[in-house]
Amino acid sequence: MLEQRRQPYALLDLDYLSWAGTGSSDRAEEFGLLLQNLADVAGNYRRAGIHLFVLAYSLHDGTELQELRKAAGLPLRVARLEVSLAEIEQRLATDITSGRRDDLRRAAASIAASEGVGIEDVVIANDRPIEAVAEELMTFLGWL
Predict the structure, then answer these.
(1) Burial group, residue 17, by CB count within 10 angstroms (0-12, 13-18, 19+)
(2) Mean pLDDT, to the nearest integer, of 71-86?
(3) Could you give the number of structural domains in the chain?
C-alpha cells in the first residue's frame, strides 16, 4: 500500500537481524545482536530519507520494547497481531521442517505465557487476508 502511494518506507523483519550461527541459544545474546544491527540499519534508512518503518518481531515484554525503541531511534507504536494457535499450526503445516516445529512450539509457549500482552497500542486480528490486516494497521498509524 505504501509502495502504491509512492511513500518511502522500510520493512524490517527483525528476526533476520539476529539470524546467525553464534553457537548460543541464549535469547538475551540474540536480542543484543538484533539491537546492534537494528541501530545501524535504521540509521542507514533514516539517512536515506526514510521516516516510515514497519518492524516485524515478537516482543516478550516492556523491557524489550524500550530497548528496541532506543536501538531504532524511532518513536514506536506497537500492534499485536492476534491469531489462534490452530491457525498458526495450519500456516506452518505447509513447511514441515524441524525449524517450523520449533516455531510452533515457541508460538504455543508464548501464547500460553501471554508474552507481550499488554505492551501493545492496538490488537489487530490476523485471521483475514493480508490486505485487510495491512489496511487496519495503516489506518491505526494514520498512514492512509
Answers:
(1) buried
(2) 94
(3) 2
